[in-house]
Amino acid sequence: VSSIHDCKIVLLGDSGVGKSSLVLRFVNNTFSPWQESTIGASFLTKTIVVDDMAYKYQIWDTAGQEKYHTLIPMYYRDASAAIIVYDITKPETFDAVKAWVKELRTMGSPDTVVAIAGNKCDLAENRAVAVESAQAYADEIGALFIETSAKTAENVPEMFRRIPAMLPAS
Ligand code: GTP
Ligand code: MG
Questions:
Q1: Pick from 135, 75, 131: which is nearest to 100 by CA?
Q2: What is the pTM of this model?
């Protein structure tokens, strides 16, 4: 490992979809069924090694409640990657993903790569968003798509580890 690359990552998505839970699963390998709703935003870091390169992830976990929306541009503005999260059991949270993509496209940087996470895949018996439609939408906008569970940890490290390969060569 020769040098450490800084990588700013922002999590976006409706309140309750599991943004904080995904970050806490990735950073601390913990999960709480009573995770509190985020106020404003929270910041965590974790350094990982992918393909012999070290990345210091600077992770901004934003608050999904509408009253905090006006704060969010300052978190995505110079982000390397945005992870937009929805809850596979709540179709309106997938509509919110599309709204975030539009906002990023108009107000964000064209260099910010997008990953879409369909979270709570442990609740697949209550699924309301088909894998195929989410994958088709992600393909259409050139985003990574992955289903995750912060509860079981399924695909959580994988999602974060796939970000470096998405970044433009620098
Ligand atoms: P805001 O901070 O309000 O924007 O919400 P958030 O997106 O950060 O959601 P949070 O991580 O607080 O999770 C909301 C609720 O969903 C909590 O009760 C979590 O325990 C639960 N939760 C999060 N991820 C999962 C998951 O993968 N599976 C299940 N079953 N529950 C989850
Ligand atoms: Mg939160």
A1: 75
A2: 0.98
